[in-house]
Amino acid sequence: MSDKKTSVYRILDANMNRLREGLRTIEEYYRFIENNEQVSITLKGLRHDLTKIEQNLGRDNLIINRDTATDCFSKENRPEELTRNNPEDIVYASFKRTQEAARVIEEYSKVANCPDASQVAKVLRFSLYSLEKTLWINKKND
């Protein structure tokens, strides 16, 4: 695999992990803090949609090209990651992280010649935008 292709799969792997972790973080809030079964199920469903992307990209391609040893951000937290004052800050940051990761996957899947993965990532991204808005409005109306 060429260096460029390796780098693309490394980007895709990092963002698949980021997206999965972010969804799980949001899901845990709605499951254990809000005790909202329906939202938890919705988030779990979105997390399981990642399987479709992973199948299109190829699990082996993602894992083989993973390189955490040379990731300049793998050793310590960035200062901006340490400013969470309450669980809602975590949820807000996680929504942004998941939306950004979905966009990265959407774009780099095109370079990896996986248009189906790109399309699933796009649908997922817009689902996250809508879900965030709905949950934000509901929270403000409580």
Task: Report what the structure shows.
The chain has 142 residues and is mainly α. The protein has helices at residues 3-33, 37-57, 59-64, 87-111, 115-141. Helix 1 runs antiparallel to helix 4.
Number of helices: 5
Radius of gyration: 16 Å
Alpha-carbon distance between the termini? 53 Å
Order of helices and strands: HHHHH
Secondary structure: number of strands:
0
Helix/strand class: mainly alpha
Mean model confidence by pLDDT = 93
As a percent range, the share of strand residues is under 5%
Spans where pLDDT lies below 50 across 5 or more residues: none
Tell the overall outline. globular
- Count of discrete structural domains: 1
- Give the proportion of residues in helices: over 70%
Biggest pleated sheet: none
Give the secondary structure arrangement, pairings included.
Elements: H1 3-33, H2 37-57, H3 59-64, H4 87-111, H5 115-141
Helix pairs in contact: 1-2, 1-4, 2-5, 4-5
